[in-house]
Amino acid sequence: MEKKFWMKSLRQVLSVIPFYLLTLLPLSANAQCGITNTAFQSGEFLSYDLYFNWQFVWVKVGTASMSTVQSTFKGQKAYRSSLITRTNSRADKYFIMRDTLLTYTTLDINPLYYRKGAKEGDRYYVDELWYTYPNGQCNVKQHEITSSGDQNWRNMKPGKCVYDMMSIYLRARNFDAATLKEGQRITLPIADSKKLLNTWLVYKGKENISMKNGSGKFRCLVLAFMEREDGKDKEIIRFFVTDDDNHLPVRLDMNLRFGTAKAYLTAMKGVKSPLTSKLK
Questions:
Q1: 0.85 cut: is pTM over it?
Q2: Pairs from 213-221 (Cβ < 8 Å, separation ≥ 24)
Q3: Of 71, 70, 68, which Cα lies nearest the Cα of 84?
Q4: Res 212: pLDDT
Q5: How far apart are CA 277 and CA 265, in angstroms?
Q6: Could you say which DSSP state residue 214 is in?
Q7: CA–CA gap between residue 137 and residue 139 (Å, rounded)
Q8: Is 146 helix (H, G, I), strand (E, B) or coil?
Q9: Neighbouring-strand partners of residue 4
Q10: How far apart are CA 97 and CA 48, in angstroms?
């Protein structure tokens, strides 16, 4: 019974971490889906450790790594950004996870293509999105390969700018924190291979955050990720994002049905701007 409960808990923690790690803070959608990039540069690499609270003990269950480099997509200059999430050998005994998320965007962060290939337990599935912008409108072609091998195609014409779990992260890095007011609510138009997700964030102000294992302290913007469940607004996760030009997510606290999970930034390389938010 304990192993079954552990597997269910771990599965929930690990399956949502890529989504929570990436959905930060987009600006309001408009006819032009791009934004001037001031937050990151080609060659940025970030690493995270993932923890789950099991019977009052914090257990490391895996790692995540993120990279962004300049590349090309169908002949045009583009950013290629990827996220790899994997369980460690201890967690693999209960639930294996090997997820790879990939996106291509223009240099001003218009999404062009997205793919998620996910090995979760005994399941493997693929989500893909292709973006086009006829007459300034965003169209999305959706492709799903299910764990049973079925292929489903859909087309979505939302008439507004939408993003995926990766491109929203790149855009979110470039918001103007000076314009935020405590309690402000920001919508999140995010697509996958099936639907458009309508969730939101609430800005909670600023807080100084100590990192795990004494690796420093940062002044952070605090953001609560919300969804509506059973007619009630529910906080699913709290982000702590550096209060500087980089807007790096350094810690994530996840409130899950079976416990609490955290993700900590452990290493960074190629960060564009000075970490003026670091206190010590």
A1: no
A2: 215/266, 216/278, 216/279, 216/280, 217/278, 217/279, 217/280, 218/242, 218/243, 218/250, 218/275, 218/277, 218/278, 218/279, 219/243, 219/277, 219/278, 219/279, 220/250, 220/251, 220/277, 221/177, 221/180, 221/247
A3: 68
A4: 83
A5: 14
A6: G
A7: 6
A8: coil
A9: none
A10: 15
**Would you state the structure tokens that stand for residue 101, as one six-digit string?**
């998320």
Residues 191-240: pLDDT tens digits? 889 988 777 788 999 999 998 877 789 999 998 878 777 778 888 788 89
The residue-averaged pLDDT of 160-167 equals 86
* pLDDT of 21 strictly over 70: no
Contact 22, 249 (CB under 8 A): no
Q: Which of 197, 113, 107, 115 is nearest to 158 (CA)?
A: 197
Q: What is the pLDDT of residues 112-124, one digit of tens each?
A: 999 999 998 889 9
Kindly list the distances between the CA atom of residue 59 and the CA atoms of 94, 234, 251, 262, 278, in Å, as whole numbers in the listed order. 13, 25, 16, 10, 26
Please, where are the H alpha helices in the chain?
2-22, 89-92, 167-172
Q: What is the tens place of the pLDDT at every residue in 97-115?
A: 899 999 999 999 999 999 9
Contact 199, 20 (CB under 8 A): no
> Which tokens belong to 224?
């609560």
The predicted structure's pLDDT at residue 201: 80
Q: Report pLDDT for 148.
A: 95
Contact in structure between 50 and 60 (CB atoms under 8 Å): yes
Nearest to 130 by CA among 85, 107, 100, 162: 162
Cα dihedral: 119, 121, 124, 126 (round 10): -60
